[in-house]
TrEMBL record, chain A:
GO BP, one annotated term: peptide transport
Chief localization: membrane
Organism per entry: Oryzicola mucosus
GO molecular function: ATP binding; ATP hydrolysis activity
Subcellular location: Cell inner membrane
Protein name: ABC transporter ATP-binding protein
Domain ABC transporter: 13-253
Organism placement in taxonomy: Bacteria, Pseudomonadati, Pseudomonadota, Alphaproteobacteria, Hyphomicrobiales
From TrEMBL, chain B:
Main location: membrane
One Pfam family in the UniProt entry: BPD_transp_1
Keyword Transport recorded: yes
Domain of life: Bacteria
Family classification: Belongs to the binding-protein-dependent transport system permease family.
InterPro entries: BP-dependent_transpt_permease, MetI-like, MetI-like_sf
Gene source species: Oryzicola mucosus
GO cellular component: plasma membrane
Lineage of the organism: Bacteria, Pseudomonadati, Pseudomonadota, Alphaproteobacteria, Hyphomicrobiales
Protein's recorded name: ABC transporter permease
Residue ranges annotated for the ABC transmembrane type-1 domain, each copy included: 95-284
Length: 270, 311
């Protein structure tokens, strides 16, 4: 596998034989992969292929059936509930739907400062106003938004708040679960651009779950292709897009409208 | 409308309360109900300690003294009962007990019921099953019968009355808060809180409670009226309060024997119960409507509240 050839880089997350059953259904089937420091790993696949389940299982929002999840050498599945809560400071997640992931009765200030309430060692209370101001600036929101409720904000603005909240703890690993698919197309580019800028500034490692192949090609270093709970192919982005080895990957690439060649479309029309 | 506050001060919590008050001022029925309740409450708090002795002063020469006469001073303006005790003074002293019993019962039942309901709904499993079966059992036994039998065995005192009524009323809060929690638990912001590293107690207190409490408050307001009626019913049946403790139910119960000779000994305390229950019901109905974003919009609610209520 491609990951084996890179030896020098430290791995932030290493998943071994991760399996998750929902009753009779196998949502994740012996998943193996590794994410190196500063890397963007894309997870692609159709709806129901287990992408979101993978993200939630890594964060232990869902209980894994078996396998190992090594975060910097530490098996997350072996931690006690309290240890896991403390570890979550380093692994943050941004959810798909910003309309659902923000508490409706909390202002932007409260939402962004919430992580420090949980992990009180990160920022003392008197620093909160400055820190929130800095984070809002970082994600490109006006300072006045601090006193607003999420209902006042647009989808893109809400997702920026969610990003600010995730960054408040300066995470080491950021899991992005289709962070733009619930947003208007015009807003998607802005949010992606913001994420990429922040990734370069802060240098977090990230797992980017998406079904937008054009986007994945643009930003990811490595790609995992999932189908029915198993990884059908993984490797560097270039290699996967240039020379897909698995049938399912080819099917996925072929069904992505942006990637269909100009001639193919014309032939179909003719 | 852009917010004018540019400084990053933590938001003012009173905003929501302010706009709700403004809304209340525009709704005549709700406002009247609130004023009636506040008036009765003030009378009970201020008047009762002052009139305690007068209310228990017996004067057999004033037996069945007719109402609406200022001959014997204002305390006798609503007449006197079979032992010549002034009705108005008794009503005021009784108001304090009635409000105390109703308020304490509702507060106790709502606090315990909501806490258990949220825990039950969030944790689920065995805890949930056990709590819900207990709640089913309490519901199956008619609350008046339960209270009647317990108070028959125990000595009827204010404390026992409150405890018994609170137990009987527990399932309502338990079910309402559990049902709400079951729905809120599945929302993504709760998952987001878990992803932040929050523990169960913090999620219950900071994420779920703020969304459950408004509903419970509305139920509690409605319950004030029912509990007051239930307490009056128990007193009426003779297992409620005993003299010298007196509440409106006791007065109705005592006056009943002389209904044909002195209607005022029954009608006035009955009227007091009716007015209080009606005001509490109307106010809780308004609270429910104003808490519901759909109905609140029709009532001309301000933007911030409507938005805060929206998911």
């Amino acid at each position: 596998m491609a990951a084996d050839t890179k030896v020098a880089v430290t791995s932030v997350l290493k998943v071994e034989k991760l399996t998750k059953h929902f009753g009779q259904v196998t949502a994740l089937n012996a998943i193996d992969f590794e994410v190196a420091e500063g890397e963007i790993l894309a997870v692609v696949g159709e709806s129901g292929s287990g992408k979101s389940t993978l993200a939630r299982t890594i964060l232990r929002l869902l209980d894994a059936s078996s396998g190992r999840i090594l975060y910097r050498g530490k098996d997350l599945l072996g931690l006690t509930a309290a240890e896991m809560r403390a570890t979550r400071r380093h692994i943050q997640m941004i959810f798909q739907d910003p309309y659902a992931s923000l508490h409706p009765r909390r202002t932007v200030f409260e939402l962004v400062s919430e992580p420090w309430r949980v992990h009180s060692s990160v920022a003392p209370r008197r620093e909160w106003p400055q820190r929130v101001a800095a984070l809002l600036e970082q994600v490109g929101l006006p300072q006045a938004y601090a006193s607003l409720y999420p209902a006042r904000l647009s989808g893109g603005e809400r997702q920026r708040v969610a990003i600010a909240r995730a960054l408040a703890l300066r995470p080491d690993l950021l899991i992005l679960d289709e962070p733009v698919s619930a947003l208007d197309v015009s807003i998607q580019a802005q949010v992606i651009k913001l994420l990429m800028t922040l990734q370069q500034e802060i240098g977090f490692t990230s797992i980017f779950i998406s079904h937008d192949l054009a986007l994945v090609r643009l930003i990811a270093d490595k790609v995992i292709v999932m189908n029915r709970g198993r990884i059908v192919e993984q490797g560097p982005t270039q290699a996967i897009f240039a020379n897909p080895r698995d049938d399912y990957t080819r099917l996925l690439l072929a069904s992505s409208p942006e990637l269909v060649g100009e001639t193919a479309t014309k032939e179909q029309e003719a | 409308m852009a917010a004018r506050t540019l400084s990053l001060t933590p938001p003012r919590r009173r905003l929501a309360a302010d706009s709700r008050l403004a809304l209340l001022l525009r709704s005549p029925v709700a406002l009247l109900s609130a004023l009636v309740l506040i008036f009765l409450l003030l009378v009970a708090i201020i008047g009762a300690p002052l009139l305690q002795d007068l209310a228990n002063t017996q004067n057999l020469r004033l037996r069945f003294f007719r109402p609406f006469s200022l001959e014997r001073g204002w305390a006798y303006v609503l007449g006197a009962d079979a032992l010549g005790r002034p009705m108005l003074a008794q009503l005021i002293v009784g108001a304090r007990t009635s409000f105390l019993v109703a308020g304490a019962t509702v507060a106790l039942a709502a606090t315990i019921g909501t806490t258990l309901g949220m825990v039950s709904g969030y944790i689920g499993g065995v805890v949930d099953a056990a709590l819900m079966r207990i709640s089913d059992i309490i519901v199956t036994v008619p609350s008046l019968l339960l209270a009647l039998s317990v108070l028959f065995v125990l000595e009827p005192s204010i404390l026992n009355l409150i405890l018994v009524l609170a137990v009987a009323r527990l399932p309502i809060y338990l079910r309402v808060s559990r049902a709400q929690t079951l729905e809120i638990r599945e929302r993504v912001f709760v998952e987001a809180s878990r992803a932040l590293g929050k523990g169960t107690s913090s999620i219950l207190w900071r994420d779920i409670r703020p969304l459950v409490v408004p509903t419970v408050m509305t139920v509690a307001m409605l319950e004030i009226a029912s509990v007051m009626l239930a307490a009056a019913g128990l007193s009426f049946l003779g297992v409620g309060l005993q003299r010298p403790d007196v509440d409106w139910g006791t007065i109705v119960s005592e006056g009943r024997e002389y209904l044909t000779r002195a209607w005022w000994a029954t009608v006035f305390p009955g009227l007091a119960i009716l007015v209080t229950a009606l005001a509490a019901n109307l106010l809780s109905n308004w609270m429910r409507a104003s808490g519901d974003p759909l109905q609140a919009a029709a009532m001309g609610v301000t933007a911030s509240r409507e938005e805060a209520a929206r998911p």
